[in-house]
Amino acid sequence: MLDFFKFFSKEQNKSKDVAKERLKLVLIHDRANVSPKFLEMVKGDIIKVISNYMEIDEAGFDIRLSRIEQEDENYTSALVANIPIKRMKNMGKNNG
Amino acid sequence: MGEVIVITSGKGGVGKTTTTANIGTALALLGKKVVLIDADIGLRNLDVVMGLENRIVYDLVDAVEGVCRLKQALIRDKRFEGLYLMPAAQTRDKNAISPAQMQKLCEELKEHFDFVLIDSPAGIEQGFKNAIAGADKAVVVTVPEVSAVRDADRIIGLLAANELTEPQLVVNRLRMDMVKRGDMMNIDDTIDILGIDLLGVVPDDENIIVSSNRGEPAVTEENSMAGQAYRNIARRLLGEEVALIDMESGVTFMEKLRKLFSGKNKRKS
Fold first, then answer.
1. Of chain B residues 168-227, which have a CB less than 8 A from chain A?
2. Domain boundaries in chain A?
C-alpha cells in the first residue's frame, strides 16, 4: 500500500521536472545577468515611486524575473511584481 | 581548407576530452585527415586518453613559441591513418599562449587537415578564450544534470559573443533507465532549455572507462553503445543524416542484426 502511494507521489513530482523548472528559472537570471542585489535596487525604487500614490505592504512586496509564454509558444522574460495595496492616497485632496 | 571545431562545456568532467578523442578517431576511420589539439595547458589529458603519452617530444607551446617546427609537435597515431595529436604543455600555464597565436596555429593547420578538433579546458577564462580563438564551429558537451546544463548555457552565450553563433550539442552519459523513471532530463528537456541544435547523444557506457584505461578510443569497439554514438556523430559532421541510436534495444542487438545481414567484412566501415 505504501509503495502504491509512493508510486503516485513520484509520478507527480519527477525529479527531472524539478530539475527542468529550476534550471529554467536560474537561466533567466543568468541570461539577463540579474543579481538578487539588482532586483533589490529595482524593488527599492518601485516602492519609492508607488508610495507617492498609495500605501503598500512592503513585506508582501514580491518582485522577480519570470517567463511568459507568448502566442507563438516562445517564451519571453518579464519582470513580475506583486504589490499588495493597503490604502490609496487621496491625491485629489493633496493636489487641490 | 579544413574546418576547425572546438569542443567545450564550461563544466569540467562532462567528457570533452573523451568526445574529442572519439569524434577525431571516428573521422579518421572515415578517411579524413584529422588533428586533435589539446588546449588544456597544464592539465593535459588527451594524450593519455588516446594512448599516445609516451610519444610526446614537443608540444603546443613549443610549436607556438617556435622552439620546434609545427610538424615536430604533431604525433602521428600509427593505429589510425590520417590521425594526429598536438599535445598540450604540461609544465606551463594557460597564459603561455594567446588567442592570436592560437588563431594563427589553427589557420596553418587547416591548410593541411580536413578537421582540426580542439579540446577546450573547463572554465571560461584564458584557456577557454584560447581554445575558441581559431574555431569555425563549436560543439558543446553536457551531461543531463543541472550544474552541467547551466554551465553549458553560459558557454553558449560566450560562444555567441565570439561569433560562434550556431554551436551544436552533444548530450553525454545519458542513462535510459533513469530517463524512463523520470529521474533524468531527457534529450527534449535538455534541448528545450538550451535551445541549440543536437549533434548527438552518447549513452552512459562502461566501455568508455575501459577504453580510456587502455588508451584506445571506444569508437573502435564495435559493440560499444557510446562507440556507435560517436561514429554517428562523426558521420553527421560530414553532413550525413543519421538517426539517433535506439537506446532501448541497445546497439549490440542492432549491430548483430546489421552484421547478420551485411556479412562480417564491414568492420570499421
1. 179, 181-186, 189, 192-193
2. 1-33, 35-96
For position B269, what pLDDT does the model report? Answer: 39
Q: What confidence score (pLDDT) does residue B265 get?
A: 44
Q: What is the distance between the alpha carbons of residues B148 and A23, in angstroms, rounded to a whole number?
A: 10
Catalogue all structural domains in chain B, each as residue range(s) with its CATH number: 3-266 (3.40.50.300)
Cβ separation A15–B154 shorter than 8 A:
no
pLDDT of residue A35: 72
Interface contact A16-B183, CB threshold 8 A: yes
Please report, for residues A24, A75, B201, the alpha-carbon distance to residue B158 in angstroms, rounded to integers and kept in the order given.
18, 21, 23
Q: What are the chain A neighbours of B157 within 8 Å (beta carbons)? A: 31
CB B207 within 8 A of CB B239: no
Instruction: Establish if B158 touches chain A: CB-CB under 8 angstroms.
Output: no
Predicted local distance difference test score (pLDDT) of residue B28 = 98
Per-residue pLDDT band for B88 (boundaries 50, 70, 90) equals very high
List of chain A residues whose C-beta atoms are within 8 Å of the C-beta of residue B183: 14-16
